[in-house]
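Give me structure tokens for this 230-residue protein.
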Amino acid sequence: MDRILRLFDLIDEKTELNDAIAADAIALADAYFDAWRRHGAEWTSRSFGEVADAVTGSPPPKSPKADAVTTARVSPAEVLAANPPYIDEAADHGYADPRSVCPPGTVLVCPRPEGARAAVTSTSMTPNRGVLAVRPSDGLDQWWLLHELRSRSDELPKAAQGQQAREISRLAFSRLQVLWPEAEVRQRFHRVAQPLHDRALKALDENRTLTRLRVSLLREITSRGSSAAS
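Here you go.
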């Protein structure tokens, strides 16, 4: 039993370490982006509509059409809770128009008066109402776009609709201006940011394995306890 308890302690310690690794990797990528952005005065001002395609989330159809597909549906709460900023699954699944399904690498944005949150999908998903899906024109701009939106957390709710600032329309977002450097600059940032996000994702994936190990051990202990009692 002492060895089992020690194993649980090691799982907890490793999980905490992995959480710290992921948080530090993302913070470092944020810092790199902020440092590069200080040179933004030399960059061209463009609208988000020129550099990305935005899709406003919608509720699942009440009467699915013949070509409707079943997909994971991401809620605003899941985007707001995505810390680190990755979404690999959703609690809800339902029908959706095939054109509303967003591929992996889509940046999901959810505003609130206290600030907007942005997260990247790792699988195909559909945004529910209150979630804006943003896809860069060039796949290599995924991390640049994510960090740009993270850096504008306080600004994005000003473009949101309603007194509670809980939804940004596709049109309002597409009109927002963004300083957009030349492709060579964005690609250099991608080469810096990609390994950092890869390290964060690796740490989080290891935590999922550790969680499964914990569950398996608990089941085995429970099973042995039940057998001994009988």
